């Protein structure tokens, strides 16, 4: 997203800043959507269902860049006229990626204080935030170098592979502890990564709340 305007200018869009605003607007709208529904849907479910969208978007971009730059040895060359069809697919792929990112990965990692018990919550949250910003800095600072070293198609394919690994981590290692008490969260992690235990506890809690909900007078 940092280099979207420059990227769209290189692939032939006449108003790259305006096109970049489409990406920013998508990020903004889907961030609002995620903030509204994250507690309703659940953090794990949002991550598991949004990450494949990131993989699809980046893979589509990799394919589009491959065929777009097939006559320039896989590299983007300033001043070359690229097919608008492939350029439009790059834009579409970026919209898919950013929408999926804003829904899941752009939101959930910032709301994981509940994973930590009170005695380590401060340091745990600090380390999580530092890790998020370090990863952000690493991607942002190496993006242009990676594009130059392994071509745009290779760079976006590499990012798609990273997102696929992240999705697998969410599927097998990321429990949803939203709505659980501190004692229940500690019980979750006594059973490995606690995915099944967290689902069981949340299901039991929903059933209890449903039974306690007052029935309307007939």
Structure description:
- This protein is mainly alpha-helical and 218 residues long.
- It is built from seven helices and no strands.
- It has helices at residues 4-10, 16-41, 43-68, 84-103, 121-173, 182-188, 195-212.
- Helix 2 packs parallel to helix 4 and helix 6 (182-188) runs antiparallel to helix 7.
- The longest helix is centred in the last third of the chain and has 53 residues, at 121-173.
- It is elongated, with a radius of gyration of 21 Å.
- The N and C termini lie far apart (55 Å).
Record keyword descriptors for this entry.
7 helices; elongated
Outline of this structure?
The protein is an all-alpha fold and 218 residues long. The chain has helices spanning 4-10, 16-41, 43-68, 84-103, 121-173, 182-188, 195-212.
């Amino acid at each position: 997203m940092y280099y979207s305007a420059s990227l769209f200018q290189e692939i032939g869009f006449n108003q790259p800043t305006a096109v970049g605003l489409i990406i920013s607007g998508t990020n903004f709208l889907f961030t609002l959507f995620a903030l509204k529904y994250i507690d309703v849907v659940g953090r794990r479910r949002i991550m598991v269902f949004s990450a494949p969208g990131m993989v699809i978007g980046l893979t589509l971009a990799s394919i589009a860049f491959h065929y777009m730059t097939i006559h320039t040895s896989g590299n983007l060359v300033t001043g070359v006229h690229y097919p608008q069809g492939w350029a439009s697919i790059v834009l579409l792929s970026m919209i898919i990626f950013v929408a999926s990112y804003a829904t899941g990965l752009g939101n959930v990692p910032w709301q994981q204080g509940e994973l930590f018990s009170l005695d380590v919550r401060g340091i745990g949250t600090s380390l999580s935030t530092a890790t998020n910003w370090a990863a952000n800095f690493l991607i942002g600072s190496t993006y242009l170098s990676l594009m130059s070293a392994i071509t745009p198609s290779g760079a976006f394919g590499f990012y798609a592979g990273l997102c696929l690994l992240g999705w697998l981590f969410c599927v097998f290692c990321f429990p949803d502890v939203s709505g659980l008490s501190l004692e229940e969260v500690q019980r979750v992690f006594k059973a490995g990564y606690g995915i099944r235990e967290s689902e069981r506890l949340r299901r039991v809690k929903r059933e209890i709340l449903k039974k306690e909900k007052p029935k309307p007078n007939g």
